[in-house]
């Protein structure tokens, strides 16, 4: 039996298969292969993964990849592979008028597997100089109908930014209209919430099963967060999760992930369903967000169990990308998207935008990454 690679002696964690053990992973061409069963084995390269985690390729469910179509946009492969991220979701930078340009120029030109939301507005999120026009009178429903009919495999839903800086004097109407259009299109609504002027009880009442609450631990000014007046997780948030609403950390900067709220949520058994970065051109490799392994390190420091962190960046986002069994797992037959990480013992002080801090002593450091069986990243000192 011939194999392209054998990744030996690593700690394999694959929540999709219920695996956490020391073992070997075999890759043949673009797929994870069944291990040999007594026959002669020829391996092109053996990688010693001792003292490392061997995980499914990481999935960043919220990272801005609208490269050269938006001030926020990152070049996908350059921004993903060094973090052992092999699949990603573009969270609606492009709108109804320019989505096809993004799809042609970015999605089709990238080796990273990319799915996307489309912004409810025509032009989407083009620049940090001003927000998109969120007046519902400007939403182009016929164009959105066309896009969801033509790109059903690519589009995961509608994206809407909501809060004081985005929707301002428009009140609840953008949310009402966004939810109405999502129902009409039979798709999900991904709601970016920052500095909302309405209670989460009111906001979450507009959510349906399969909708997403982005920046679920935000505390960007004002009195409203998923904590109630007693500092506990709101009943409305628990009820929303029970009916199928997905909570995405979408870490971001500018206090879009409050360490206080994050720690309280983990303490109460209310971790995020998905851990993602919300990286943009201004934050990639920077001190506030850096990349997905860094954000995973923050959640580890906050007390979230390792297995749950791995699930939140592999199995769960793979399911929501509608690629369960193909990515987010190391099961034989899946795409050979693999992340090899080392947990480095390192005293860390993570600092949020508002100055709140979190102490940790472990850091996830990418060592090697495979995309469909090909090496797309390796630390210079790893296995040489």
Short description:
This protein is an alpha/beta fold. The protein has helices at residues 76-80, 99-107, 141-150, 173-184, 200-204, 235-242, 259-267, 292-301, 306-312, 315-320, and strands at residues 2-14, 19-28, 31-33, 42-48, 53-56, 58-60, 85-91, 113-119, 155-162, 188-193, 212-214, 246-248, 338-351, 357-371, 374-378. The longest helix has 12 residues, at 173-184.
How is the topology of this model organized?
Elements: E1 2-14, E2 19-28, E3 31-33, E4 42-48, E5 53-56, E6 58-60, H1 76-80, E7 85-91, H2 99-107, E8 113-119, H3 141-150, E9 155-162, H4 173-184, E10 188-193, H5 200-204, E11 212-214, H6 235-242, E12 246-248, H7 259-267, H8 292-301, H9 306-312, H10 315-320, E13 338-351, E14 357-371, E15 374-378
Parallel strand pairs: 1-4, 1-5, 6-7, 7-8, 8-9, 9-10, 10-11, 11-12
Antiparallel strand pairs: 1-2, 2-3, 5-13, 13-14, 14-15
Explained architecture:
With 384 residues, this protein is an alpha/beta fold. The chain has a domain at 58-320: Metal-dependent hydrolases (TIM Barrel, Alpha-Beta Barrel), CATH 3.20.20. The protein is 21% helix and 28% strand. The chain has 10 helices and 15 strands. It has helices spanning 76-80, 99-107, 141-150, 173-184, 200-204, 235-242, 259-267, 292-301, 306-312, 315-320; strands at 2-14, 19-28, 31-33, 42-48, 53-56, 58-60, 85-91, 113-119, 155-162, 188-193, 212-214, 246-248, 338-351, 357-371, 374-378. Strands 1, 2, 3, 4, 5, 13, 14 and 15 form an 8-stranded mixed beta sheet that branches. Strands 6-7-8-9-10-11-12 form a 7-stranded parallel beta sheet. The model has no long low-confidence stretch (mean pLDDT 96).
């Amino acid at each position: 039996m011939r194999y392209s690679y054998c990744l030996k002696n690593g700690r394999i964690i694959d929540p999709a298969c219920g695996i956490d053990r020391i073992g070997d992973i075999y890759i043949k061409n673009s797929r994870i292969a069944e291990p040999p069963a007594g026959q002669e084995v020829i391996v092109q390269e053996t990688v010693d993964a001792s003292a490392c985690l061997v995980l499914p390729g990481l999935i960043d469910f919220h990272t801005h990849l609208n490269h050269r179509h938006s001030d926020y946009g990152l070049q996908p492969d350059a921004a993903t592979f060094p973090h052992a991220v092999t699949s990603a979701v573009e969270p609606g930078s492009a709108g109804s008028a320019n989505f096809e340009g993004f799809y042609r120029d970015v999605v089709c030109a990238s080796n990273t597997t990319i799915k996307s939301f489309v912004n409810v507005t025509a032009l989407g999120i083009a620049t940090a100089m001003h927000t998109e026009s969120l007046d519902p009178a400007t939403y182009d429903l016929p164009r959105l109908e066309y896009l969801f009919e033509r790109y059903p495999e690519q589009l995961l839903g509608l994206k809407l930014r909501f809060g004081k800086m985005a929707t301002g004097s428009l009140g609840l109407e953008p949310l009402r209209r966004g939810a109405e259009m999502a129902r009409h299109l039979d798709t999900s609504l991904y709601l970016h919430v920052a500095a909302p002027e309405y209670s989460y009880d009111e906001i979450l009442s507009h959510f349906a099963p399969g909708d997403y609450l982005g920046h679920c631990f935000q505390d960007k000014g004002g009195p409203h967060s998923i904590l109630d007046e007693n500092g506990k997780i709101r009943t409305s948030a628990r009820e929303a999760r029970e009916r199928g609403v997905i909570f995405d950390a979408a870490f971001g900067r500018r206090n879009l992930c409050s360490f206080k709220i994050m720690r309280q949520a983990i303490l109460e058994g209310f971790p995020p369903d998905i851990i993602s970065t919300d990286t943009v051109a201004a934050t990639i490799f920077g001190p506030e967000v850096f990349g997905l392994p860094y954000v995973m390190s923050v959640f580890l420091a906050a007390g979230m169990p390792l297995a749950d962190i791995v699930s939140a960046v592999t199995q769960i986002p793979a399911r929501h990308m509608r690629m369960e069994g193909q990515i987010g797992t190391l099961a034989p037959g899946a795409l050979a998207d693999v992340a090899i990480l080392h947990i480095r013992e390192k005293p860390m002080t993570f600092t949020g935008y508002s100055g709140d801090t979190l102490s940790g002593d472990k850091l996830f450091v990418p060592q090697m990454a495979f995309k469909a069986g090909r090496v797309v990243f390796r630390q210079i000192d790893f296995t040489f």
